[in-house]
Amino acid sequence: MVNKIIQADVSAASAVTTQLLADITAMLAEKSIYTNAVQQQMLESHVRAMVLRSMTGEPLPEVDKSLFEEISDESMRLAKQVVNKFNTLPIEEAYLLSVHFEVARDNNQP
Questions:
Q1: Other CB atoms closer than 10 Å to residue 51's CB: what's the count?
Q2: Which of 18, 60, 76, 100 is deepest in the core (most CB within 10 A)?
């Protein structure tokens, strides 16, 4: 019985992750922000873990917000948009997610 519940959660997490990644890709494309292959792989890994945390309630380690002072307002705003899709995720998740967006933004810099 427990295995069936776990499998259902993993299946649901996979579907949510796939949809969320599609939403993120579209959101970034609207801003002409694109990830390279390595960045996309890292983003996918983070989003998968984030979705699972949203379902399991697993907390993040404490985040020092001062480490994110150089993240642009745009990257932080986009990350908060994504995190706000979940009622169960702390705002610290947006800080971590914003790094992916910020790095991808740098791809467009001369």
A1: 22
A2: 100
* Nearest Cα residue to 20 out of 100, 103, 85, 96: 85
d(CA 79, CA 57): 19
Residue entry with tokens 């908060």:
80
Q: pTM value?
A: 0.86
Q: Looking at residues 68-77, what average pLDDT do you find?
A: 95
- Closest to 54 in 3D by CA, of 8, 89, 90: 89
The Cα–Cα gap between 57 and 60 comes to 9
Q: How far, in Å, CA of 50 to CA of 52, rounded?
A: 5
pLDDT digits (tens, 9 = 90+) for 91-102: 999 999 999 999
Please give the structure tokens belonging to residue 69.
């002072």
